[in-house]
Amino acid sequence: MPALRALEDAVLDNGALSLMEAWDKRIAESRARSENSAMVNYFYGFHGIAFDIIGVLGFGSSFNITKSGDWTLIHTLRKMSNLVGIKSISPALARLKWLFRDMYSALDYMRNLAHNAQQQRRKEYESSDRKPHDDILQRLIEAHDPSTGEKISSTCMVGEILLLLVAGTDTSSNTLSYTLMRLLHCPNILKRLQQEIRQEFPDISTPIRFGEAREKLPYLTAVLLESMRIDSAVAGYLPRIVPDEGTVLLNKYQIPGSTEILLSLAACHHNKDVWEHAECFDPERFMGEQGELRARDVLVFGYGVRMCLGKNLAWMELYTVMANILRKYNIELPPDATYGPHRLSSNPDAFGEPEHIPIKVLITSTPVDPKRNCRILISEATEL
């Protein structure tokens, strides 16, 4: 991963450090009002930095969502993603454009954004001697078939850009949101994790980097794995087409060629034959040697040749954001929080755990009513 490490400064600057700068401003404003803590929304905070990071790495410049506080692009992409999910589930229903007028408007907006991005980049370097950007958009523009020399068409380019925006933002930001939600609902786990981070990295003036976090924070690794298991960011069905010659599943099921098979990661991650107390948030299951082996059963990034291309970038975001914010801030739910340790689940398989924020799923999953349910109170930790 040497090439990925070279991108870490951009991930830190536009991720954890940018978010902490925004949150520090909110704390300063609260202090000016003689308040002990500041109210922030972690869902929108995590989505903002995810967009800003993919803006820098994918298009050469940040979207500046975190600094501006303008969430319009986030809401628009969410509407477009919902439409894609509806099309995949019920293509006939999705043809009723009048029923999903707002979503189709969002799709048109995002297509225009992607089209304009590539057109602007092409014009920029056709009329300039400047060295091209070293980002994903430039790689797509320069890509060609080695056999024919054919380049990616403009239409395909738009599709690739939109895929990059969805895959590079929704997944990591929702995983961060679910992780913090689970920690806030399980105070003992949050306390243990913060103790680990603050003991290993007491110097608040130096940001915690990816490699050292992964090496020195085993409990953070366990928390992230358990969060991805129990709340899969990609919880919808992932279709796969059987090759023409067909295949055999589990040594007994003959599947004809061209059959579409749908895989549910959420179902895999809640399979009671694989996971003891599958409905419980228990990072301990990923500690020690057995935990390292069990981590292979977390399929959130896929497996084999179809494994997520952004896996290492996602891990970098998850480690650096969680480690840095949990070291710097004391975090708690507001008194009027609907969900938290005070509200226990009625699910007998949850063994008395708190009821967590409901999620809605099309392709990716997202918490219900994040504007209200993802509010937290933060204050700077005075003792590390």
Describe this structure in words.
This protein is mainly α. The protein has one domain (2-380): Orthogonal Bundle (Cytochrome p450), CATH 1.10.630.10. 53% of the residues lie in helices and 9% in strands. It is built from 17 helices and 9 strands. The strands form 4 sheets. Strands 1-9-6 form a 3-stranded antiparallel sheet. A two-stranded antiparallel ribbon has the order 2-5. It has a two-stranded antiparallel ribbon with strand order 3-4. β7 and β8 form a beta hairpin. The mean pLDDT is 89.
Spell out the blueprint of helices and strands.
Elements: H1 2-5, H2 8-14, H3 16-32, E1 38-41, H4 42-59, H5 65-68, H6 72-89, H7 91-94, H8 101-126, H9 136-142, H10 154-185, H11 187-200, H12 210-216, H13 218-230, E2 237-241, E3 247-249, E4 253-255, E5 260-264, H14 265-269, H15 288-294, H16 311-328, E6 329-332, E7 359-361, E8 365-367, H17 370-373, E9 375-380
Antiparallel strand pairs: 1-9, 2-5, 3-4, 6-9, 7-8
